[in-house]
């Protein structure tokens, strides 16, 4: 009787996962198609959307054996949507953030800072989940420390990629870089990623732990 109940519970969980996956994919591709319709710069669109597509590919490859918790899955989707919006308008010309800049008396569109904040906020929980569910590190402090360090390293590497792209294409990379004349843009990008990573751990670790325990009891 117990085995039958467990089987029913497993089937229900699989059905929920399937429904969540389809909803995730519908939202992803709907926004992807929208972002690709007459973007401000086709070259910038390709550069900005490429990480989202690579992320989708990685999730698809891992899906049969490793499925992230609902919390992390939703955050990954939100991060992809930020990339797509930035790709459509370019990071310096997102209309909502233009209006926010006017309201705050600033001349700078700060959508790129939201992107770099997400670059820490989301990957830190992705790394944390992999580390915990694969039992790579057991001590809570070192799990958090490693996850934050990974995000900082990833953020720094992304800045190197932006630099290499700029060297490769010259002035055409201005929309991709999105510096808007700010000389400390690279350093502030990494700082925003650090803030995002630390804040995600502070706010979501307990909820994350509960979801990890539900899908992968330790």
Give structural notes.
The protein is built from 9 helices and no strands. By secondary structure, the protein is mainly α. Helix 6 crosses helix 7 and helix 7 crosses helix 9. It starts with a helix and ends with a helix. The model has no long low-confidence stretch (mean pLDDT 85).
Oligomeric nature of the chains: single chain
Average pLDDT taken over every residue:
85
* Sequence of secondary-structure elements: HHHHHHHHH
Would you report the number of β strands? 0
Low-confidence stretches: none
> Shape, please?
globular
Q: What is the alpha-carbon Rg in Å?
A: 19 Å
State the helix count. Answer: 9
Structural class: mainly alpha
User: Roughly what percent helix?
Assistant: over 70%
**End-to-end distance, in Å?**
24 Å
Largest sheet: none
Beta content:
under 5%
């Amino acid at each position: 009787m117990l085995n039958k109940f467990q089987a029913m519970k497993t089937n229900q969980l699989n059905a929920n996962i399937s429904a969540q996956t389809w909803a995730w994919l519908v939202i992803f591709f709907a926004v992807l198609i929208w972002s690709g319709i007459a973007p401000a710069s086709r070259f910038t669109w390709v550069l900005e959307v490429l990480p989202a597509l690579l992320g989708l590919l990685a999730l698809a490859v891992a899906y049969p054996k490793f499925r992230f918790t609902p919390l992390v899955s939703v955050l990954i989707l939100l991060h992809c949507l930020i990339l797509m919006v930035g790709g459509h308008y370019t990071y310096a010309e997102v209309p909502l953030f233009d209006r926010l800049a006017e309201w705050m008396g600033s001349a700078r569109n700060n959508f790129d800072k939201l992107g770099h904040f997400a670059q820490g906020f989301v990957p830190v929980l992705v790394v944390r989940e992999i580390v915990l569910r694969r039992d790579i590190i057991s001590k809570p402090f070192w799990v958090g420390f490693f996850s934050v360090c990974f995000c900082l390293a990833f953020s720094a590497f992304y800045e190197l990629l932006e630099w290499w792209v700029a060297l490769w294409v010259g002035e055409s990379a201005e929309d991709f870089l999105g510096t808007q004349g700010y000389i400390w843009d690279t350093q502030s990008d990494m700082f925003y990623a650090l803030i995002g990573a630390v804040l995600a751990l502070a706010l979501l670790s307990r909820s994350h732990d509960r979801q990890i325990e539900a899908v992968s009891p330790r």
